[in-house]
Amino acid sequence: MDKPVLGDYRIEGIVGVGRMGVVYLAIDRITGRAVALKVLRDDVGVDPVYRARFRREGELLAQLNHPHIIPIHGMGEVDGELYMASRLVSSTLRNLILAGPISVDDAMTILTALATALDAAHAVGVVHRDVKPANVLIDPGPDVYLGDFGLARDHEGSQLTLPGQVLGTIDYMAPELLDGERVGAATDIYGLACLACETLTGTVPYVRETDAATMYAHIVEPPPSVSERRPELPAALDAVLAAGMAKDPEDRPASAGALVVDMLGALGRPAPACLAEAA
Q1: Where does ATP bind (predicted)?
Q2: Which terminus of the chain faces fewer neighbouring Cβ atoms within 10 Å, N or C?
Q3: How far, in Å, CA of 169 to CA of 250, rounded?
């Protein structure tokens, strides 16, 4: 039986299912290259808002040419099915966290790469709005890529969001996202601080039984202590992550790079050259 084909791609199997799309392992029939082929799910494919959001994700990824942002190989539409082909990556940060403790060295390598990716996006007015381990793609090395810009907001401020609709992932959502206030680069910095907490300790910042309780914690409760969860970490790191998770966006570090530079400082480590401007 012939394998299904979509445009120039032969589908080999399913990699995963996300909020908007199904990701397939596919082979480019022209180049022979294996790719991750993201296809808009059937249940949302008829919704013009989701179709517009999917197209814009591809456009943003095509514009964001950065070594730590997942590269896109192409996008198109066949018989009403929207698809996007990107680099095929073997795993995610979420999988690494579930597999067991991540060394501090590897954690800081990952966070440094993410900070440069976010700062590059922010420099052209793009806010990711969904920074979380499942959206961090990793190959052995680790080679790190920020992916899934499906909820991103561009410099023109268009959000494709209905009034009162909250988009994102509760465990990493800044208070301003939950309150429906205007989002900006500081929103992603909050998400990066939450992700840093989980990467270093294996647990999300606020472990609560309900989404409502988690939302309440993000809005009013103090940030957790990573040094209590992982005693080998210095107490100075708690203050750095608390600044990254400040309730008021104005009180957070000026950039994602600045947050990671401060983390490295708390750990007694120098900032790498790629974060020199943030130091």
Answers
A1: 38
A2: N
A3: 22
Give 8-76 as a 3 state SS string: CEEEEEEEEECCCEEEEEEEECCCCCEEEEEEECCCCCCCHHHHHHHHHHHHHHHHCCCCCECCEEEEE
d(CA 196, CA 263): 10
- Judgement on whether residues 125 and 55 belong to the same structural domain of the protein: no
Q: Which helix (H) or strand (E) holds 6?
A: strand 5-6
Establish whether 38 is an annotated binding residue.
Answer: yes
Task: Looking at the structure, tell me whether residues 10 and 129 fall in a common domain.
Answer: no
- State pLDDT tens for residues 221-268: 999 999 999 999 999 999 999 999 999 999 999 999 999 999 999 999
Specify which residues 146 forms β-bridges with.
69, 136
For the chain, give percent helix, strand, coil, nearest 5.
40, 20, 40
pTM: 0.91
Closest CA to 67 of 117, 25, 20: 117
Domain boundary among 87, 120, 149: 87
How far apart, in whole angstroms, are the C-alpha atoms of residue 78 and residue 98? 37
Structure tokens at 59: 């456009």
Task: Give the number of domains in the chain.
Answer: 2
Domain containing residue 219: 91-278
Give pLDDT tens digits for 18-68.
777 899 999 999 999 999 999 988 888 888 888 988 888 888 888 888 999
CATH assignment at residue 136: 1.10.510.10
Contacts of 7 (CB under 8 A, 6+ apart): 76, 78, 83
Same domain (yes/no): 161, 245 = yes
Task: Tell which of 54, 87, 120 closes a domain.
Answer: 87
Residues with catalytic function: 130
Rounded mean pLDDT, 79-94: 93
- The CATH number for 30's domain is 3.30.200.20
